[in-house]
């Protein structure tokens, strides 16, 4: 069941502090471009306004400007009976208390607490991950759910942008949202207690979109003082045995329901929160920058109203504007459909682009899970006729998900046209969106 963005107890809206960051080609008559990359992305999430800038939850616990949650004893205390005065001495501490309640209680429930100076603050519930804590105690599962939720909301740069979160809890549920196509990662741990070897269990693993639609202060960016660690050798959740959700959208798992990681006595975590993020550019105030992807690139072709003058090099390769699955930007994309046998086929832009040397062109591509493609090769045609191409075997991409391929116009040259060459063993479909430079 797909979570909505309406703040109901089972489908809360969670906005997160996200921020942006972020194959050798052979030249004919020009200097070769730098190596290009092909990388996978996918995803979506649940939304709320995120103001939790923790300037790095420290490894001594959830620490913000010297405030640490591992000194916050929860044993035998309900949320209503919990004294938060030790936290609520400034705006930063109030923010931590706010997110404790937001993660724990469902929408419609609230807690009123006085800060260290006697001023009352009302904290609203949102996600309902530990509703029993309102008037009861917070057991290990309660701590783990709240920890995962708070870790999922950290932005070390303090930039507020939306995210979509899911998990195997009635307070979250599963699903994907077309506006959040990149699966960033999965978060889990226990930030309330030091484990028996004196460390805090604060962990994450990367989703296939962790380095796509990159946001400053989030994983995939150059985080400073991040509170969590990724101990998987490859970094990826899906390669290292995390158990995928039974729920899927377009044949892609919505997230992960269990991961094994850690250096303390507890290594198996059943309370995990998966984050999906957008491919939009935001200002430091969280305002969307129109026509930009998350890494600041300008979207040149979005295919919202048609194929924008793109053509296919084979009459059996049919191009159309579609919204049958998740788009990367906007609500539509260009779909390339081929129903014949093995061959090499191309799609290309109009031929009057005039791209300067050094221009890096990116294409988002979505491959069907049963695709027979063997290679995906972006190309740039030089003004005057020569061409540069990067060969990317399909073994390097994730089927049933969005991927990125890139190519750069070599120095000393200009580019008049861009496109993608498909090598296939049979029928396939591929979606193309957000062509940027």
Walkthrough of the structure:
The chain is mainly beta and 437 residues long. The protein folds into two domains: 15-21 and 41-289, no CATH class; 299-436, Galactose-binding domain-like (Jelly Rolls, Sandwich). The protein has helices spanning 91-104, 140-152; strands at 15-16, 38-41, 63-64, 67-68, 110-114, 120-124, 161-166, 182-194, 200-206, 243-244, 248-249, 252-253, 256-260, 268-269, 273-277, 281-282, 288-289, 299-301, 311-312, 317-322, 333-338, 343-348, 360-367, 373-382, 387-389, 392-393, 401-408, 415-424, 428-436. Strands 2, 18, 20, 21, 23, 27 and 29 form a seven-stranded antiparallel sheet that branches. The radius of gyration is 23 Å and the shape is elongated.
Number of domain modules: 2
The number of helical runs is 2
Q: Fraction of residues in helices? A: under 10%
Structural classification: mainly beta
Q: Would you count the extended β strands for me?
A: 29
State the shape.
elongated
Poorly predicted spans: 1-29, 31-45, 48-67
Overall mean pLDDT score? 80
| Strand content range | 25-35%
Largest pleated sheet = 7 strands, antiparallel
